[in-house]
Structure formats: structure tokens, C-alpha cells
Amino acid sequence: MGNKTNKLNVCLIKSEYTKFDEIIDPDTTSRDIDGVGTFYMEDSRPRPPDWLNDFFGSRLRGKLHLTTSTAKGVLLVRLRIDSKPISLPSYLDMDVLC
Fold this sequence. Notes:
By secondary structure, the protein is mostly beta strands. It has one domain (28-97). Helices cover 7% and strands 24% of the residues. The protein is built from one helix and seven strands, in the order E-E-E-H-E-E-E-E. The protein has one helix at 50-56; strands at 12-13, 29-33, 37-42, 72-76, 80-81, 84-85, 96-97. It has a three-stranded antiparallel beta sheet with strand order 2-3-4, with no helix packed on it. It has a two-stranded antiparallel sheet with strand order 1-7. The two termini are 32 Å apart.
């Protein structure tokens, strides 16, 4: 079997945001990972897919046991180059780039 790979989205945050709670709601569940960063997550709960009601309306309500669940998590890591935080050019007017 081949090597397993994972897709990652990498985002750069403007340097004016210096605290993680300026980026993520401070009430979000988090776990510190020593030497790496902080992982933030939200609870996943099974629920009917959004498209089910959009497509069928109320015709199938209660008749299907079709559920979906989405895992939501983000790892925030502080990066420094030459002992300086990485920052974005000021002409970029987006708060977060992904």
C-alpha cells in the first residue's frame, strides 16, 4: 500500500493579530500541543444532511435515517523567521488568507 497523504489548508494571519483568541472564539474547546501550537475543535454531531430538506422538502421528513457529521478543527501555530513574526504585505486587505 502507498504512503498515506492528507490535504491541509494553510492560512497566514496578519501580524496585527497577536493572540489566538483574536482569531478563534476563546470559548472553543482547545488542546495545547507542546512545541507545536494549539488545536481548536468543535463537537461533531450526526444530523440530516442540509441537501435532504432543500431537495425533498418535507416529503421525506422522519422517513429516512440518513445522517452526516463534519469534523471541525484548526491548528494554530506561531511561525518566526529570523526571530521575527511572519507578516503579510500591507496592501493585502484581507484579514485571513487561505
